[in-house]
Amino acid sequence: MPDLAARLPVVFIGHGSPMNTLADNTYTQAWRRLAGRLPRPKAILVISAHWYVSGTAVTAMPQPKTIHDFYGFPPELFAYEYPAPGAPAIASRVRALLGDVDVQADETWGLDHGAWSVLAHMYPEAGVPVLQLSIDGTQPAAFHLDVGRRLAPLRDEGVLILGSGNVVHNLRVMRRTDAAEPFAWAVEFNDWLRERLITRDAQAIVAPMQFGDAARLSIPTPEHYLPLIYVLGAASEEDRLEVLTDGVDLGSISMLSVAYGA
Questions:
Q1: Quick one: pLDDT at residue 3?
Q2: pLDDT digits (tens, 9 = 90+) for 74-90
Q3: Model-level pTM?
């Protein structure tokens, strides 16, 4: 039997704006506190909303580059580098765990801001090896849940599994001010989802469109929601759920973050 005391948690972070990389706020402080009370991981496997492609791949290079996958932000954000080493051996283990899933060993991607904007606060020294797993946009929710389940053994092998996205993410109506009031539908869906997480209603979480218009407005495209599905798959029934951060920023971006087994 695995040693539950040594098992690392599985975490979903609502990463929000890339500017959180440089910010000291309630969200980034919570990310730092979480890392401060966890055993130091052997490696971190990130499933980021920003590597959403056709097919499954895992970064396998020894030194992933820092990807600045955005535009219109200040120069200091483009200058930011997160020089964490890669984890080729863990990438091979990921491929083995996923078995019949065709997982490409990627040498071109690197670390996108869904990874480094969070890790900049959790592990600012960039000393823990990091690799990313892509999200296959051609697959249904059941596929992503199953991949998460297959990855769960990594938790007993010193690997922190971290999903990074936002459960409400609608940039088309985003209000570009820190004091913006959240849209009623964004709060409604965020509250509905948080309750489903607390009650462990996996069936509802993997099929959120049943919630109607609030869900459709909150998830106009799936890539920021799907990292949560991987996390849900990797969590076990024994894991205690902890809500790390909550709230809706910029009108339409949920900052809900949760940890299982922390």
A1: 47
A2: 899 999 999 999 999 99
A3: 0.95
Q: Are 56 and 136 in contact (CB under 8 A)?
A: yes
CA atoms of 77 and 83, how far apart (whole Å): 15
Q: Are the C-beta atoms of residues 96 and 143 closer than 8 Å to each other?
A: no
Q: How confident is the model at residue 1 (pLDDT cuts 50, 70, 90)?
A: very low
CATH 3.30.429.10 fits 10-260, yes or no: no
pLDDT digit string, tens, across residues 6-16: 899 999 999 99
CA separation, residue 135 to residues 77, 109, 181, 248 (Å): 25, 13, 31, 24
150, two tokens: 């297959």
Extents of the domains making up the chain? 10-260
Name the token pair of 77: 């954000």
**Tokens coding 128:** 């823990």
Q: Could you tell me the two tokens for 36?
A: 């401060």
Buried residues in 33-54 as b, exposed as e (16+ CB within 10 A): ebbeeeeebbbbbbbbbbbbee
Q: How far apart are the first and last CA of the chain?
A: 19
pLDDT tens column, 200-231: 999 999 999 999 999 999 999 999 999 999 99
